[in-house]
Write a structure and sequence with these properties.
The complex is a heterodimer of chains A (about 350) and B (about 290). With about 350 residues, chain A is an all-alpha fold. Chain A has helices spanning about 10-20, 25-30, 35-40, 45-65, 75-90, 95-115, 120-140, 145, 170-195, 195-205, 210-215, 220-245, 255-265, 275-290, 300-310, 315-325, 325-335, 340-345. Chain A starts with 10 loop residues before the first helix and ends with a helix. Chain B has a two-stranded antiparallel sheet. Classes of the chains: A mainly alpha (about 350), B mainly alpha (about 290). At the A-B interface, helix 7, helix 13 and helix 15 of A face helix 4, helix 9 and helix 11 of B.
Chain lengths: ~350, ~290
């Protein structure tokens, strides 16, 4: 796949080439404005998708780039969601500052956790993230005076955004608010992974021992990216609270951690847009199927997951990239998609 | 006070024995192939549903369904192992997790489709019901039966692993897979058999679990966490470790729910994380 960019001489040129915006990316982001015109009745679903995409993006930073498997990432999502809810309940309903404070709180939690996370790998890491997620879920469940327990947090009221835009029933404000936050944090992530820091993360993912041998200690890097990822996950959770004005215990569920992993893998980990595409497919599919038969929803997801692992190891976007890397596949896909694979394969 | 403590100890021990049956197979297969099989509880669930179907639809006696549950889970699991899992032995942890969790999702949906989402009833024979009262402590007959079955299984496992040729091959593969291959041991074949036996034990555990914890399609996910805790705390590939971890978990879970109902499960996760931070390879594990 590297053969598609032969002109690149050194790491700096490589990074500069990565930073340039491609037509397909601009088309992608502009197309996210379509729901306002085409499906105005589905704006609340659209904002849910944007929030899920942001959450998936946060997981992509640690899983796709630094190779840290987490089965408990909902801990930060839920922490941010509860933080935003409590801030509003205690009388400060201003959305933007609430969002920042919640993100900072989740980031702080992530920073503390990162000292543990960076010490482990493999099964112990999976188990510790899983245990931590369950721990926080239980904590929120038992601290029912603070969180409302299984009934959810009551009394979350948001003030109008910027003092002007009320959160309406149709999700109009909710969608553009979530979309702008998603876009801004996407810009941050994009810049981050296309920096020398991002390159070291990929090095750690590929071979942590060798990175250490060439002088790039892996633990501080892992701590940094884990903190950032936790903060972004917290902001996603806070967005969910603010746009729906409720917090339920479901934000901390193991199910949510598993779902977001599925979303990211379906879309393709380690390529930024993977989580976004995965979130859209997953949420729209769930919306469809839940109308038909909610309890069988996991059948197609399970089949997809098995299929992706066995046949599409890099997710849907990775599958496109793979087709595109052969001469026949390239002709088949046509010139239209060309900028995508040239841009997103690391 | 002392009777309640004894009662909790007894119930917790019985529960721990159940957890041991459910998780010992995973511990050994994880130790051999480093294959993270999150679908282990799916095989337990298969055992449970086989028992329910045989009792309620075919009229089999309860005890006769237990071997059937064992065999069904073993046969189905080895089918999956030969067709799917073996392709991922050299893949990353993440791929293994994802494939097997996909399998769990499919099995949950299929179970919901075939049996509905309600708890499955199971009618125990009379001689397994009731309880004995000794010194004011209640000993449930079924729990005694469970403990006896689990202890027999443990004994057979330990003896087979220590004193048979096959057991020696399995131990060699757990200790050092490459070396074992180099010595001409058919590790793949030994692994397939171990996998079938381990899943069969999970199936047996699933069948025995119905009376204690019930059976519904969420079983495959709900017990996954407990099984993983037992395996990771006990240490990979260690039967003794799994036994100790399962008993510890069973008793502390029971005690937590009995004495501190509000924070019971919270304590368990806290203990697990602390133990893993202290010894990432588990209490009896020799390697990560």
């Amino acid at each position: 796949m590297a053969a598609t960019s032969p002109a690149i001489a050194g790491p700096h040129q490589y990074l500069e080439a990565q930073i340039r915006w491609r037509t397909i990316e601009i088309i992608f982001w502009l197309s996210l404005l379509l729901p306002f015109v085409v499906t105005p009745n589905y704006l609340s679903l659209a904002s849910q998708i944007a929030i899920t995409a942001l959450f998936a993006l946060s997981l992509d930073l640690i899983l796709g780039y630094a190779g840290i498997v987490s089965l408990g990432h909902a801990a930060f999502f839920g922490f941010g969601a509860y933080a935003a809810g409590l801030i509003s309940k205690w009388g400060w309903g201003e959305p933007l500052t609430g969002l920042l404070i919640s993100g900072a709180a989740a980031g702080l939690l992530g920073y503390l956790m990162s000292f543990i996370i960076s010490r482990f790998r493999h099964l112990a890491l999976i188990m510790i993230t899983l245990g931590f997620g369950l721990l926080l879920h239980e904590l929120a469940n038992s601290a029912s005076e603070l969180t409302g327990g299984a009934d959810g947090l009551q009394g979350v009221r948001m003030w109008p955004l910027l003092g002007m835009f009320k959160f309406d029933l149709y999700g109009h404000t909710a969608y553009w608010y979530s979309l702008i936050v998603l876009f801004l944090l996407f810009l941050v992530s994009r810049r981050l992974i296309n920096s020398p820091f991002g390159l070291s993360l990929r090095g750690i993912r590929e071979n942590a021992v060798r990175m250490r041998a060439i002088g790039a200690e892996s633990r501080p890097h892992i701590r940094k990216i884990y903190t950032i990822s936790a903060a972004i996950a917290g902001i996603a959770g806070a967005l969910l609270t603010q746009t729906t004005e409720t917090v339920s215990l479901g934000v901390l569920d193991f199910q949510r951690s598993a779902d977001i992993l599925v979303i990211l893998i379906l879309g393709g980990a380690g390529r930024l847009y993977g989580g976004l595409v995965g979130a859209a497919i997953f949420m729209i599919a769930r919306d469809w199927f839940s109308g038909v038969n909610p309890q069988y929803w996991y059948f197609p997801i399970g089949v997809l997951l098995i299929g992706v692992v066995l046949f599409l190891p890099n997710g849907i976007l990775g599958g496109f990239a793979q087709i595109a890397s052969t001469e026949r596949g390239r002709r088949w896909l046509g010139w239209l998609l060309a900028p995508l694979w040239r841009g997103t394969t690391p | 006070m002392i009777t309640s403590v004894l009662g909790v100890l007894f119930d917790g021990f019985a529960y721990g024995m159940l957890l041991f049956l459910l998780s010992v197979g995973l511990s050994v297969t994880l130790g051999m192939m480093n294959f993270v099989n999150l679908a282990h509880c799916t095989f337990a669930m298969i055992g449970g549903y086989v028992t329910v179907t045989l009792i309620n639809n075919a009229g089999w006696p309860f005890l006769a369904t237990l071997p059937a549950a064992f065999i069904a889970a073993a046969v189905i699991s080895v089918g999956f192992e030969r067709t799917m899992f073996r392709r991922l032995y050299r893949a990353s942890d993440l791929d293994q997790c994802l494939l097997t969790i996909g399998l769990v999702f499919v099995s949950v949906a299929v179970a919901a489709f075939v049996y509905g989402t309600i708890q499955q009833p199971v009618q125990l024979p009379n001689y397994l019901r009731g309880s004995y009262q000794i010194l004011g402590v209640t000993f449930g007959v079924y729990r005694l039966f469970l403990i006896v079955v689990a202890l027999i299984v443990t004994l057979v496992l330990v003896l087979a692993l220590e004193f048979t040729r096959f057991g020696a091959q399995v131990r060699a593969a757990v200790d050092n897979q490459r070396m074992a291959r180099g010595l001409g041991i058919n590790v793949d074949g030994a692994f397939a058999i171990t996998f079938a036996l381990g899943s069969g034990l999970a199936g047996l555990g699933g069948a025995l679990a119905i009376e204690i914890v019930g059976l519904d399609p969420a079983f495959a996910l709900a017990f996954l966490v407990y099984v993983l805790i037992v395996v990771s705390v006990g240490g990979l590939g260690s039967i003794g470790g799994s036994f100790v971890a399962a008993v510890l978990l069973g008793i502390s879970d029971m005690a937590g729910k009995y004495y501190f109902p509000a924070i019971g499960s919270f304590l368990i996760y806290l203990v697990m994380i602390t133990l893993l931070m202290w010894r990432p390879a588990g209490i009896f594990g020799r390697r990560t």
